[in-house]
Amino acid sequence: MKLSDGRALLWSGDIKQQALAMIRASRHRLYVDIYECSDPDLLHALIAARRRGVEVRVVLDATEKHSMAVALPTLARAGIDVAPIRIKQGIDHVKMIIADRDVLIGGMNFGADSWANHDASVNLPGRAEIFLPMFVWDAARAHGETAEAPEDRAPLISDRDIGPSVLRAIRGARREIDMEAFNLTDEDVVNALRWAVARGVSVNILVDPSQSRNRTAVEALRQAGALVRYYRPYGGELLHAKILDVDHGTFFIIGSSNFTHQAFTYNHEADVELMRVPAFAEAFESDLHRQMARGSSYPIREKVASWDES
User: Which intervals hold domain PLD phosphodiesterase (predicted)?
Assistant: First the structure.
């Protein structure tokens, strides 16, 4: 789904195609800040970009096994500036590419099998300057340098600013809240959703069936009157999206952060908060309602997710 200003909401395999297109079209810089990275096509595209003279820099989460076993040695051998970052008590959960002046950011990892997951990211043409300070900060920390955290500029929200932004959006809802959530366990978010139902807001939520910790929130929200369904996988994929849509795009939050205390408090996360994007909301709500219709009231099929659970 693409807006007139070039911003686009992308799903699953389309995200990979957008990432490859951005990498292959880059002429000056490619900065990647990513939790999981092991897709061979993307790695080869990054190496090819460096060979044609593009400045390529990559920050990887130091705890993610695929990034450490595949991306780190592959990119380092090609002479790319690649470094792992360690986040105290958390992970670098960001999923972002900056290619020249454009940005791709969202919930999608760049693993070899990530593209099968039900997930979404946004393409933001011409907005690189907003996201560059965060990447520069991460790269400095990954190389062991002391650096001061930059202030976020809209639409970027990161780290401990994400939780309050999510709560403000939910508490400000007047008519409808729609969500897709890989992991929904934060007590404040669950309570805010319950209170939204109590004041007459329609709350519709789709959650991933593999995360057993979702079940407490699911039951509490159902008892409050929210419509909550479990995603029904087509194969072995996950519902990996993290999207909050309030009042048909009045507030639209999408990114790396799960709706958990861990994500809001300890992880390094990056979301975008978009306002007045009814076309994005229409595309998202169409997907949500379709998936909820084929979903289930209980997790009928589970895939154990040993990664990216926070």
Answer: 88-114, 235-263
**Chain position carrying tokens 């079209």:** 25
CA–CA dist 165, 158 (Å, integer): 10
117, two tokens: 């997951």
Q: Is the pLDDT of residue 308 over 90?
A: no
What are the pLDDT digits (tens) for 95-125?
999 999 999 999 999 999 999 999 999 999 9
Count CA atoms closer than 13 A to 161's CA, side-chain side.
16
Q: What gap in Å lies between CA 64 and CA 257, rounded to an integer?
A: 16
DSSP secondary structure code for residue 72 in this structure: H
Indicate whether 307 pLDDT > 70.
no
The residues that bridge with 227 in the sheet, in sequence order, are: 204
- 70-96: per-residue pLDDT in tens? 999 999 999 999 999 999 999 999 999
Taking alpha carbons only, the member of 120, 117, 160, 94 closest to residue 252 is: 120
158-294: CATH number = 3.30.870.10
Could you tell me the pTM of the whole model? 0.95
